[in-house]
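Trying the structure run again after the queue cleared.
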Amino acid sequence: MAKEAGLDLVEVSPNVDPPVCKILDFGKFKFEAQKKANAARKKQKIQHVKEIKMRPGIDVHDYDVKLKAFHRFIEAGDKVKCTIRFRGREMAHKELGLEVLNRIREDVSEISKVELEPKMEGRQMTMVFVSK
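Done. Tokens:
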């Protein structure tokens, strides 16, 4: 029947009794499957990690500017890594950096959640957020 129609006989399920076969144009079938896979790949959103750097004694206006950038990154679907950098004697007051990170956590709690809790890495304290 497949030869008469000029098509291919394709075995769909070989493990059942009796085996299931289908008459179709195999080249066209492979082309459509590849096209479907390419379309699915195009729709994927690659998630980048954006970083916002601050200091423990950040001023109110500077903080607001950084927060606006944070909102823009989260709405674009990216992860945001907030970094507090300590210099010199600031290392003795790590609680100030922790207060800044907790303030960020409270301000953005409605649009994002914490993926990685604050941790010290050398002279930097980092915290990672992801959108809800």
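The chain has a mean pLDDT of 92. Worth checking whether this holds up in the mutant runs.
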